[in-house]
Structure formats: C-alpha cells, structure tokens
Amino acid sequence: MNINYTGDEYLRDFFENAPIGFHVFGPDQIIIDINATELNIIGYEREEVVGKKAWPDLIVPEQRPRFERHWKDINTNGLVTNLQYTVVRKDGERIPVLLNASARFSPEGRLLHTRGSIVDITKLKKLEEYLRESQLIMRKNLQSLEQSKDQMEKENTHLRESYSGSIKQRILPLVERIKRRDSTLKKRIVNILENYMADLTGTMLTKLYNPKFGLSDREIEICLLVESGLTTREIAELLCTSVRTVDNHRNHIRKKLGISKQVVDLGLYLKSM
Questions:
Q1: Of 118, 147, 177, 273, which sees the most CB atoms within 10 A?
Q2: Measured between alpha carbons, how far is 185 from 182 in angstroms, rounded to an integer?
Q3: Per residue of the chain (273 residues), what is the pLDDT tens digit?
Q4: What is the CATH number of the domain that holds 112?
C-alpha cells in the first residue's frame, strides 16, 4: 500500500471503483452517496441524484409499492436481499438489477441510513428468457412427437385393418374360384394363395398400400397376381374378365408406380420393391 494512502482514502477508492453499484440512502430515502459504477448503470451524473433523488424515482412506477414494502422490511429487520428491480435510466432504457441492502441504526434504534448494492442482471435475464424459450420449444417438440406417435399408431391400425380386409377381398375369392375349377390353373392359384398368406404382414402389401401410389383394390390384386408370375391371360381367366381389361389395369398400375415410360417388366419391378 502507498504510504500516503490513508485508510479513509483506501475505503473511498474501494467504494467508488468497485465493480458493483454502491449507494447510501438517508432515512427519508434520498440518495446521500453513490459510486461511479451505479451512476453508470442509471445514466445520471452525481450532482443530479445526490441529495435530490430517491430510489423510487429511479425505478419503473409499478415497482414503487414493492419498494415501500421493502423499506418497511429493512426498517424492521435491518436487511433485505436479492430484490429484483427495473431501473429506468436517464435516457429511458430499462435495466434489470439485483439489490441487496442493510441498515444502520442509532443506539436508540432510529434509522440513520441504509447501505445498498446493485448488480446489472441484464445477461441473467436474457439467459432466463433463452431457457424459457428453449423449454417452450422442447414442450412443443414433445407434443409433436406424441402427435407423430398417435399418427403412427393410427396408420398401423389402418394397415392391420387393410391386411385383414385383404383376406376377405383377395384370398377368400381365390378359395371360391378354386372350388369351381379343375383346370391346370388350380395349382397356380394354390401357390398364389400361399404367397398371399406369407406376405400378409410383409413388405409387399405395405408398399402397395402406400397412399402415394393411389392403387385401387383391384389394381393391388392384379399387382400380387403379376408378381406371382401369372400371365395377363391367366389373370383374366382367374378374375373372369377380359385380357383387354387386365391390360388396361396394368397400364394404370405402371403409370401410378411411375414406370409407364420405362422399359421394365412389371412383375420384376414388383419383386424388386
């Protein structure tokens, strides 16, 4: 320490140049001393506040009743801690601060003055706001995931129902046709029936039921028959329809699958799906 640096000068230097705001309020709430750091926070010159302004003059109006309650607390308990206020700077900018203060009393218990400190908590407030926004985004994402889960369950239910329907719409009619036929096509139909059963919950039906293709039930049935290796004529005989009708269905299927302009065998393409 400098030999000419007295104790009072040392304390005054500490008060004036501390990295947090310091102030002293008189018993009438008027500011009787304030350091450079706090002056920088509130944006005033010393002569504009010392002996002229009270803390309520420097905060947003809606917080003044709160200060009166805190003033009673410090008169009663001699201490208040971690009080959040919003200071209104001389230029109108609002600064969130954290205030702590203690009181000094006379031997008779009369309030002489209070000693307080304030810290600019702008960065803390921004962090709190960021955390709130992050939590809101997380909640929205969780809700979206729940909705996606519900949608997937609905789609799975729809697929199960579609698979169940495929039994009635495709396999049972084949069984009826088998009962009515003694042709060489009978064994082929039995094989197709076995393939249907094997693929009932497999990938083929799942892909053919994809809404992006927009295949009708009859078109899906023809896809399965084509994929099983039946010719157009055999399919026409099996479905009791004309070859031309089956050809029209095949053309529509190729267009919906996006291969109408490609030189590719429909049966091989279906097997590769």
A1: 118
A2: 8
A3: 455 666 778 888 888 888 899 999 999 999 999 999 999 999 999 999 999 999 999 999 999 999 999 999 999 999 999 999 999 999 999 999 999 999 999 999 999 999 999 999 999 999 988 988 988 888 888 888 888 888 887 777 776 666 556 555 656 666 666 656 555 666 666 666 666 655 555 566 677 777 888 898 889 889 888 988 889 998 888 788 899 999 999 999 999 999 999 989 998 998 887
A4: 3.30.450.20
- Is 0.70 surpassed by the pTM of this model? no
Assess whether 107 and 159 both reside in one domain: no
Nearest alpha carbon to residue 67 among 52, 84, 92: 84
Q: Is residue 134 part of a domain?
A: no
**Whose structure tokens read 């504009």?**
48
- Residues contacting 201, CB < 8 A, separation 6+: 163
> What's the number of CA atoms in the CB half-sphere (13 Å) around residue 262?
12
Cβ count within 10 A of residue 182? 7
